[in-house]
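Hello K.,

You asked for the raw outputs rather than the summary table, so here they are, unedited. I folded two proteins back to back in the same session to keep the settings identical. This is the first:
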Amino acid sequence: MTLALGGLTWGLTIGSGPSGWTILALALLIAGLGLLVGFVWIENIRKEDAMMPLALFGSSSFVGLTVLTLLLYGALGGLIVLLPYVLIRAAAYSGTAAGAALLPFAVVLTLSSPLMGALAGRMGSRIPLSVGSLAVAVGFLLIFRIGPDGEYWTSVLPALLLIAIGMAGAVAPLTTAVLASVDARHTGAASGLNSAVARTGGLVATALLGGVLGAPGPHLIEGFHIAAAVGAFASVGAAAAAFLLVEDTPGPA
């Protein structure tokens, strides 16, 4: 699996960069996909002894939560990489100012997560996951207001605040929902796989940003806005996965 992800991300990094889709990039992608298929085949043979028991995917809720995690954390991973870079290169922020620009995101996420977790405990995880993901999508659309001359308080901050609130709504009930989506003997594997999927989403998103990071002058903002549109689309996909596949798992009253 490690080799599969290495091949996929290496190929995507080359393909999305200045070199384009060279023979090496395509070969790495094919090798990564082949190794991924091989990993699933071996896990199927190992049955209950597998590191990733395929029985996990017999639960529609687990499938929906896995898709949500991949899409939502992929969108977030791309944002965390791109936003400071764009603020430095296109809006003339210092490195310190660009880092501090993200501080409200962490503060709001920290403060609102317990409230969202309590809400999910009363009403179930499906609605918070769906609505939170949609809020993240709207936050990504607000990123279109960010440009070289945009004010932080009117362009950057509103997008960050809405994305933070949406992520709190989606992330706070996520672990509980994952554990409740499988039987007791698979909870450890389900939790570990969900964490791995979250990291993989950010890894793949970062690998795809080569073309944006290497864009010159005004094309950087244009590429940033395209990436934001992709992030919004991914967040809508996460909301759809939660709404259509996840069953409500309310906690005790």
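The second followed immediately with the same parameters:
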Amino acid sequence: MTPESLQMLFALLIGFAVAGMCSSGYRVFTSRLPSFSQLSTGPGVAALASVPLLRRFEFVFLATLIAGFWSLMSGLVLVMTLQACGFLLA
């Protein structure tokens, strides 16, 4: 495995960890779990965000790709920040 591939995998894993921390933060601040019951609250951002998970396979696949890309990019930002601060070696 090349060093670049290893760094991308590391960034992806850190991104998923950050996404998990965001979900846990939502739980801490609202005292409830994120769920599909947000659809019954009426129109809003939360209802719109959970719609792809209730539809056909293509939408679920697209949502998975978007989540993976988002995690990769947020992980890359975090890894680059840690490298700039000197906590990780390049």
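The helical segments are 3-30, 45-50, 57-85.

Happy to rerun anything if the numbers look odd on your end.

Regards,
P.
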